[in-house]
Amino acid sequence: MPQLDFATFTPQLIWLAITFIGLYLLMARVALPRIGGVIEQRRSKIADDLDAAQTLKNDTDKAIAAYEQELAEARAKAHAIAQETRDQLNAEVEAERNKVDAEIAEKVANAEKAIAATKAQALKDVRKIAGDVAGDIVRQLTGSRVAKAAVTRAIGKSAGD
């Protein structure tokens, strides 16, 4: 094998050193700075992205807090409006109920007066009808007519007059 030939061993070592130094300089001056720059750019980009994400998160948290606050205010306002409307409707219903109660009370009073008048008239007519019926019954049973005054007196006695 030619690599192990001791006669060519020294030039091989020299060329190995020259090649190693050349590759080292090439890597140290060209490749590694580029790789380091790319790594630094990535690190910077990641840090910027994390900062932007944190800023957006803070903005989002502020927006959510503002939304929650406005939502709570809107709910409170809606509750107040609903309560006000309920109170107003209750007042209107109460007024209408009082009006209807007054009308009903008036109609009941008028109806009671009409009933009392009708009852009084009916009681007057009942005595007259009772007298006529009693006179007819006596006439049919006995065959003789009875005087109206006698029948009226008998009805008065039985009624407790």
Fold and architecture overview:
With 161 residues, the chain is mainly α. The chain has one domain. The protein contains two helices and no strands. Helix 1 crosses helix 2. The longest helix is centred in the middle third of the chain and has 134 residues. The termini are far apart. The mean pLDDT is 89.
How would you summarize this macromolecular structure in one to three sentences?
This protein has about 160 residues and is mainly alpha-helical.
Outline the secondary-structure elements.
Layout: H1 9-142, H2 148-159
Helix pairs in contact: 1-2
Characteristic terms for this protein:
2 helices, rod-shaped, mainly alpha
Mean pLDDT: 89
Give the low-pLDDT segments: none
Q: Strand pairing plus helix content: what structural class?
A: mainly alpha
What separation lies between the terminal Cα atoms? 165 Å
